[in-house]
Write a structure and sequence with these properties.
It contains 4 helices and 10 strands.
């Protein structure tokens, strides 16, 4: 089962200048819990935004640059190649950014979306989710609190 996992604002903003524009510690915990032990497929810019490799995950980086090398990661040049590398994983995760989510939409079986209940200016966006293709199977609201500046919901979509 190929899963896309993302946090996106109400206007589908993912981030700006290769950074997240919100800080949601519980969402980070959920991301770690779901992706640990799996292949995580990402674009070059997303990979380069990490301060270091994420522990206990196999990093697969998609880039058009044929010369690109990433220490500790597997570098490929297409979504098909990334999925081939991850074929032994029962649940590889596509983790972004915007272009990679757009490429991954046709391959994904599941979307684990954290919908941030605010609108932000950004330069990377999550693709629209077509309700004729996807159905919500789980939704859980998390209110704003002392650690989370805005409310957000965990929403699981499955391909119909």
């Amino acid at each position: 089962m190929i899963t896309m996992i993302a946090a996106a604002a109400e206007n589908d903003t993912l981030g700006k200048d290769n950074e997240l524009v919100w800080h949601l510690p519980d969402d980070f915990k959920r991301f770690k819990q779901l992706t640990t032990g799996h292949h995580i497929i990402m674009g070059r810019k997303t990979f380069e935004s990490f301060p270091k490799l994420l522990p206990k995950r196999t990093h697969v980086v998609i880039t058009r640059n044929q010369e690109y090398q990433a220490e500790g990661a597997i570098v490929v040049h297409s979504m098909e190649a990334a999925l081939a590398v991850a074929k032994e994983d029962a649940q590889p995760f596509i983790i972004g950014g915007g272009e990679i989510y757009t490429l991954g939409m046709e391959y994904a079986d599941c979307i684990e979306l954290t919908r941030v209940h605010a609108k932000y200016k950004g330069d990377a966006f999550f693709p629209s989710i077509d309700p004729t293709v996807w159905e919500i199977t789980h939704k859980e609201l998390h209110g704003a609190d002392e650690r989370h500046e805005v409310a957000f919901s965990y929403i699981t979509y499955k391909r119909k």
